[in-house]
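Last lecture ended with a question: if I hand you only a sequence, what can you say about the shape of the protein? Today we answer it with a concrete record. The protein is histidine kinase. Below, first the input exactly as provided, then the predicted structure, then a couple of comments.
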Amino acid sequence: DAARSLRHVVLEGMARQTERLVRLQVELEQRNQDLESFSYIASHDLKEPLRGLRNYARYLAEDHATEFTADANQKVDTIRRLGDRMELLIDALLHYSRVGRAEPCAESIDLNITLEHVREQLSARLEESPIELRVPRPLPTVSGDPVLLAEIYANLISNAIKYNDKDAPWVELGWREPATPGQPLQFYVRDNGVGIATEDQPAVFRIFKRLYARDEFGGGAGAGLTIVRAILTRLGGHIWLDSTPGEGSTFTFTLSAPSTSVPS
Ligand code: ADP
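The predicted structure:
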């Protein structure tokens, strides 16, 4: 009897905890949606005045440069550069909110074909960089949205190109079967780049978070990893990071294999 009432207490406790977790999950999703709609509205409303500001700055630089002192021209130039940077940030915010609101399709996607598209998309950067792209074995087929899957790889590969100061840079794209059948597949994008200190690792998935001075590794918006994480959430997966400063980083994410249809 004691065992039965203990079991009852434990089960009730577990049910309460589960209920709490579900409530938290719903609350979290609501907050994410609020953030996405805020991003959308804010970025839309910011674009218009920014366009005006950039047009006036261009007009001053192109039509009035000879009337201004060198100092004034330099200030106009700074306004233009800040305007360009602001546009980059606003576009990233818009893109982030679009991804967050997207309704992804769940097609069977051969990731080797996705990778071909990504190589084409990044061809200029891949040609410029000495980076070696390693794919130790063919990638599998997964369930997902072709455009969003390509965006995950494009972001992670371009970061691997950008944040690498080695003489022989490489990036390896691999995957692992799940330990238990039916669990998601694990994918990794590993590089031998500059790495990320443990204390900085949680922050890299936050929007507009950049760890380096703006020009040291090229001026991204700092939204790529936030977008990758938002895409994976949309596809029912997640992403995490292991890294050693000076040695490199490994981004690992999960995706589902297509469900095998049972013949009737
Ligand atoms: P961005 O590259 O535009 O700055 P991301 O969101 O893609 O934005 O990355 C956020 C930050 O995380 C980068 O600014 C950089 O500091 C760090 N980071 C991302 N990928 C890597 C990587 N492969 N190696 C080292 N640092 C990285």
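Comments.
1. The longest strand covers residues 248-255.
2. The radius of gyration is 23 Å.
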